[in-house]
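Ticket #4471: complex job returned nothing on first submit. Input attached below:
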Amino acid sequence: MGANPIVVTFAVIYFVIMFAIGWWTRKAALSATDYMVAGRQVGPVVNGAALASTYLSPASFLGLPAFIFIIGYPFWWALISIILGMPIAALLTAAPLRKYAPVSFTDYYCDRYDDQVGMRILISIPVIFAGFLYVILSTIGTALFMMAILKIPYVWSLIIASAVVLFYVYLGGMVATTWSNAFQGVMMAVAAVVAALAIITHFGGLSELGNAIYQNNPKFWLPPHSQLGFSHPLMASWTGMVSVFFVWHYGFATMPYTVVRFFTAMDLKAARRAIFWSVVFGGAMYWGLIIIGSAARVVLETLHPLMQQLGAKNAVQLLAGIQKMYGTTAAAATDYSMIATVEALGSPWLMGVLVAGGLSIAMSTTAGWLVVMNVILGRDWMTKIFKSKWAQENPVAVLRMWSIIVLVICTLIAVKPPALVLDLSGWAFVVIIATIGPPLILGIWWDRATRTATYASVIIFLPLTLYSWLYAKNVLKSPHWFFLNKAFGWKIATFHQCYWIFVSFIVFIIISLLTKPPKPEIIQKYSIDLRRE
Amino acid sequence: MFKGMHPIFWVGLAIMYGLSAIFILWEILTPTSTYHVTIFGVPAPFIYNNIFMLYIVSLFLAWLWYYVPEQAEKKRQEAGATTDESKKGA
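Support reply: We reran it on our side without changes. The output follows.
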């Protein structure tokens, strides 16, 4: 079964635009500052769209509708809280960090905690860990869209996806990444909204859609503690719903690939206003994803042409059949639910928009992380830690070299990714916020935040979050059960062990209070002065 | 801790977490709330959750947290300009 020419045309136009942005920005990123922070000239609308597309990854576009498909209505709160969490960054991190105006994500930690080498190495560790996981996942996400919609074999999809991202990141660095991400931010929102509107129109309105979902699966709408049962075992009690609210809630203010975008804003005002625009684009996309994820089961079971052909009895069997057909285990069967739902509506125009939106969201996250990684490895490690003369004399060349190295490694892993690599993305999110979130936020907003507490945060919570996550996944058969359930005989759901985020802040505060406070001049320069408007 | 943070930050957080808590508690305490209660003829969550909380509250907070600090800065600058003028006059 080949791809429809209309769908292919959409994809070709999308790729032409990406190449054009790369080519057009190649001369705009000649200096290292341009390459790393886009010359700090990015306006609020462009930065807002770029922020949304960078932050929201294929895990959003494919994974969140899949979670709604599996878990039901209570999971809507995860998507609501992700968007609600975005504006928090405006006053918490965006404005102070733009005022400080660093180049690399690690700079603030080094200056605030007065430790140029050790702190740079320490903060790099969880960032590089998570960065590799995200680049692998985003590359896989891009390839899945190309394979499922354009019908290109998986390995070729991977190679094309990586080559295109590398082309524009290599040539234009952060300038190209900003402009391509801004375009991609608009595309992904349009794709999700158009697909959702098509679904609502098909059913004849929201009321009819709600009714169809209820008729297909009456348990879909059940909140926790209902006498009528539950939508999913993880949602049997309130801890499930509350933990999905908080698991991704604080990411926008602390994740390196969004924080570095604040550095590119032209001024303080632009940094804060960019967040408004990121909510405009991200919120629109999430509105669509909620509709698509909720409608997935009923649409697949009543409309998908392969239901009969594969002899599937329900949507889960259909998705397993589709996964088998593609012959790759790079994604879980339910991850195809979003694409298959839109495919079931039978419109090549809709699939064309979806392929552009899907490629956008996946490639933008790859590019965003790639810039963070090449600055950390090329500038921080080679120039600041190892003092390489070649790196100091060729700042742009070294960043380009690391873009190639990182992307080649990630593409090779993505060809046949170990199952654990795919699963660990949820852990990666929690580990970043639990390890480097407290020293970032409290470093700005609390004079007593100390270097020792920062070391302790990374050293304690990197292994602890990983252990608890792996234990829950392997012993309790889901990373979303609280890892001590077995010991206490509980049945508490805590998505991705997200309670560590709150525990890490408490531990950071306690250790800071027990250790030597920073020098007054450091506090003045890197805390108090940054807080002033 | 959080000394120097604009008070509007806490007002915004109270709005966000207050509304979220109200809706989550209402859903948990009224199990039929999510499907059988309707607003404008559609299941209520499509309105209060997928439109109001997701888009309207988020956009309001994003606006609030840039508009109020900007106005405060503007007032400070104007006050600074007035002080300079009066100094010049003196």
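The CA atoms of residues 317 and 480 of chain A lie 23 Å apart. Closing as resolved unless it happens again.
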